[in-house]
Amino acid sequence: MPGPAGGEATIRVLRYDPDAGGAPRWQTYRVPYEPMDRVLDALHAIKWRADGTLAFRRSCGHGICGSDAMVINGQNALACKVLIKDLSQPITVEPIRGLPVHKDLVVDMEPFFDAYRKVLPFLVNDDPAPDRERLQSPADRARYDDTTKCILCAACTTSCPVFWGDGQYAGPAAIVNAHRFVFDSRDRASNERLAVLSDKVGAFRCRTVFNCTRACPRDIHVTRAIQEVKSEILKRRV
Ligand code: SF4
Ligand code: F3S
Ligand code: FES
Fold it and tell me: What percent of the chain has pLDDT over 70?
């Protein structure tokens, strides 16, 4: 049941400081909130007025930068997009799963970006440059439109039980970003990307669990993109 539209929220945050030792522990805060306040507003209220030691990432505050993915009431979400009034209380806030915790809600994103970098997430085309831009039909542009929306928040990858398993799986975000270029008619490095994703840590580790699609704050059809990449690997016999 969602809480009242405004008033005081009870927020339980999973705190952890590896440098200080000890185990992760829950800390409870009471935070006044307005009807349109989001979980990010509550975290700011805690940090600025109650407990400056709380650590979390955020930048844009409006669902664009992807820096404040966290587990809110058990679901991966961006703290800046979730209204407090829509949540049942007490509201639990935890770091995204499967990545080492630096402190509180701040995780080490390097393993996530390592997998991202491996799929060459940029346009590759060494053909002689035309006089003007490399043209593309509207239909060709539409082929990969969905996967251009990714903001690299990691909500998908860190909701995937295969990724939690051994941390070796490249993860849905890397595959989504490979998809964005594999199906771009101007690109010339698709086979290299597909080769990266055809090995034992690649797309075929996906077990079609769909957590990634449910977690994506940009409503990208993540599982469908993964299936399309798998099909392309088989079609091209990479
Ligand atoms: Fe975030 Fe969606 Fe991109 Fe995954 S696919 S990193 S959930 S925006
Ligand atoms: Fe994981 Fe999504 Fe596949 S949750 S198993 S990457 S469908
Ligand atoms: Fe940028 Fe939430 S703070 S997406």
Answer: 98
Domain assignment present for 2: no
In a domain, 227, yes or no: yes
* Inter-residue contact 43 to 78 (CB < 8 Å): no
- In this prediction, residue 3 carries a pLDDT of 64
Per-residue pLDDT tens for 164-212?
997 789 999 999 999 999 999 999 999 999 999 999 899 999 999 999 9
User: Is the CB of 82 within 6 Å of ligand 1?
Assistant: no
Report the distance separating Cα 237 and Cα 65, nearest Å. Answer: 36
Closest CA to 12 of 53, 32, 37, 42: 42
Give the model's pLDDT for residue 5: 76
Residue 91 pairs with which residues in a beta bridge? 11
Per-residue pLDDT for 237 more than 90? no
44 CA to centre of ligand 1 in angstroms: 24
Instruction: Identify the CATH number of the domain in which residue 208 sits.
Output: 1.10.1060.10
Whole-number Å distance, alpha carbon 158 to ligand 2 midpoint, is 10
pLDDT given for residue 1 in this prediction: 65
Same domain, yes or no: 33 and 130? no
- Which ligand 1 atom sits closest to the C-alpha of 147? 5
pTM: 0.95
Residue 176 in contact with residue 145, Cβ under 8 Å?
no
